[in-house]
Amino acid sequence: MNYIENIYICIAAPLIVSILCLRGRRRRSMLFFLGGMTACLAASYISTFLAMLHGADMTLASIEISPMVEEVLKLAPVLFYLLVLEPEKEDIMGTMIMVSVGFATFENVCYLTGNGSAQLLHLLIRGFGTGAMHVVSGMIVGMVLYYLWDRLYLRFAGTAGLLALAITYHAIYNLLVAQSGAAARIGYILPMLTVLLALTFGRKRLKNLAR
Whole-prediction pTM value? Predict the structure, then answer.
């Protein structure tokens, strides 16, 4: 049995110390990384409770319950940051990515402790695949926060729409990696390809803006 709260405490302790020592953007980055880990811990409990409540098995829960719970909880700390502190627009995407990275890191650590570390290649592929998936889904929601948050009439509809898109993307990933063979490989590769496309598009956009 994995006591994920014990794992959380071991990882969170040095992060909390670093948050107390750092200042400015570095402190904020570490704080949102910890927020992502906390969201992952909370999502684990909530998803398990909902799965038991609806009588869903592990596969069904990973496709229908976990994506919704995880994406909503990943959004929660950033939404609180926006509503309470009203940060600069340029900080939104970075904070969303840090929450996603913290979430993916804690999820991978829990997977490692539960399944062992014998298959290095599988862990490497899964680590990059899961990490990229959480970053991509975070960026999807981050886009609406970046581009539409200043427009009140689009703020809520846009957030709900792209949150639904992120949940769907997450669910497709979970569905593919739950299979065996080619489907699982496609599932692990898909987020990494999405990140590469996003980086390529982002660089082209920056070049066009610079002209």
Answer: 0.83
